[in-house]
Amino acid sequence: EWLFQHLDDASRRKGELVKATQILSLDGFSLRMLNLKLVRWDANRKAESQDLYPQQQDKMLFVNSPKALLWAWTRVVRPLLPKRVAEKTQLIDTSRPAGLKALEKCCRLEGLPVFLGGSSSIPWPPDPNVLFPPLGPLTFGKDGTFVRYD
């Protein structure tokens, strides 16, 4: 809900739809680390998010992935995915210039931390109060449930 409120606020300020691009580093990832319960839980949360806010998600990018995973993704996994999912999900090799160009199509490299392939010197993890200041007072409905930020 919080992310949707920020995207909605940014869309209103910009005058056009602003979408979220998620970037996840797979540095140090191995199949032994994969927890199927967590994967199912995450898939269910993403499905709920897509149902509630279909306009919110733009792309999901994975960087710093092992070479074997890049190979498997390109030749085995991606061809099996629905076209819409395959277009929104990318594994990017940031050690190659072509990978950095693909990443740059989605975001400015100077805004990304170094470990994600960018050149930003912002400390990680960042202070959320600095990056995402409060939007304003909360508005609650008659029954006391959260409605929106003013």
From TrEMBL:
Residues 1-124 form the CRAL-TRIO domain. Pfam families: CRAL_TRIO (PF00650). It comes from the Eukaryota. PROSITE patterns: CRAL_TRIO. This is CRAL-TRIO domain-containing protein.
